[in-house]
Amino acid sequence: MRSVCVVILGLFLVLQLAAQAPAANAPQSRLEWWTQSRFGMFVHWGIYTVPAGEWNGREINGLGEWIMNRAKIPVGDYEKLAAQFNPVQFDAEKWVSIAKNSGMKYITITSKHHDGFAMYGSNVSPYNIVDLTPFHRDPMKELAAACQRQGLKLCFYYSQTQDWHEPDAVGNDWDFPDERAKNFQKYYDEKVIPQVRELLTNYGPIGLIWFDTPRNITVEQSRKLADLVHMLQPQCLVSGRVGHGLGDYDSAGDNQISVGAVKRPWETPVTINDTWGFKKNDHNWKSSRVLIRQLATTASRGGNYLLNVGPTSQGVIPPESVERLQAVGKWMSANSESIYATSPNPFPYELPWGVITTKPGKLYLHVFSWPQNGLTMYGMHSRVQGAALLANRAPVTFLQKQDKANGVAALNLKLPATAPDPDDSVIVLDLAGPLEVDPSLEQQPDGTVTLPAHLSEFHRSAESQAQLDSRGVVERWTNPQDWMEWSFKVNAPGSLDVELITSQQKYGGGWDGQQRLVVAVASQTLSAVVADNGALENPSNPYWPYVISKMGRVRFNKRGTYNLSVKPEDFPAGQMYGLTLVSIRLRPVK
Ligand code: GLC
What we know:
Bound molecules: alpha-D-glucopyranose
Radius of gyration: 25 Å
Helix content: 10-25%
Shape: globular
Largest sheet: 8 strands, parallel
């Protein structure tokens, strides 16, 4: 048994290493600064901040920087915004210090967004900030200097496929409806390539180029862009959205925090309110608590957190954003050791109380829900030789032993009654040897068992539409032949309520229920319909809570390893989204 355990552990360590290995096309040295920094600032800034979400007195739905597209503004009218764009309050040093003081290590700013307007002095196209606005300054030059001075990396967002200003590019079907008349290659050769060349020639060392929305770009076109970037600046990274998997790292969907088997370095772009580019009526601000927890959660899953600000047409980062970034900065000043240069959670599953990051010899427990009677962890095989609160180094009393009741290796931490930091109290564990954990799914000390979709054995039929998305969620499960199973350990026998946790579609706004499923475990079967029986906080996205469906109750008579399967019994026909399964949760009966 022991040797089996060691083999599994070994295998798990190897898998962990593989999970962090850089992509084949990115030399380690190019990625190093980036994976170590974990936290960057996204800046969406352009002439769309003049209308700021309103056109002809009408509020335009959707993202601020998409106003030209959403309101179908003719090129001739949109161009006139340039004359009104005069960001006299722009202060590059101030922007960079806002980023720096919040703990961010790089700034990725829109050099040209989908509207096609270059926010730098371009010789390729006169449609740019220096030539067409009364401002006449090149903010990218000023940011490059400020970043150099303050030690942050400057990175450029560049929209390579969509350019609503150009008749040959993708996206503008109101001025240029004739698709057959379009010559994308011409736009690509005459604007994209030379502009990317300018960006990598005139602004000093650039950390990365953040290409976006590849759409129908060809493999050759994506590859040529990536090669151009690497040729001009071998250390410069190429974002995942260059297309065809040719980036140096993966980009998660907007506002999506990936979970589970992410094999390559990755980044998630996140908004503080709902828009990227400034909109005067968007006041849906996330709290600093959400931001701090998202940052820690992203790091715990091995990703980078790219948090957006949308400065106004005056050049001011909204005070609501600054306030929140300051709060994140305050947390970072005491806890950044648990973020920078960390490796992800060594357990393949999430913990019920928060998230984990690691460094050689250290484990950082980010406690989000403060437990009442101390914190107990199972599955820690490494010997702990010290524990303390990271923020003030106050020692934490701990005990590591085989739990008498169930024989499980348990680590107990004695904690103060209230959370020292209600946003995220970090406890650092000092390990005596190499990090070793038991990766098997097991019942947690609070009695719960969580069986995440990405850790299931998913039996897909040949015609299955279902797939594991980057959130670690199985989506588009519409095929009644597909089924799932897990194996897990029960430590505390008794009765448990079985719940099915499902989610909206990746970008929200779509959920299908009413599927009848059969859950089989411990010689018992439950047949139930997926219904909306309540909401569960979605750690990746505060606006789209998960849906809880009650499946029934099962009883475990003794400790041991069990198998649980979920099989369709009756699937309604013609569903658009099908089942979007996050996990199965078993909870002790109160
Ligand atoms: C989307 C939008 C774009 C935004 C980007 C940020 O792709 O098209 O407006 O810049 O997400 O991740």
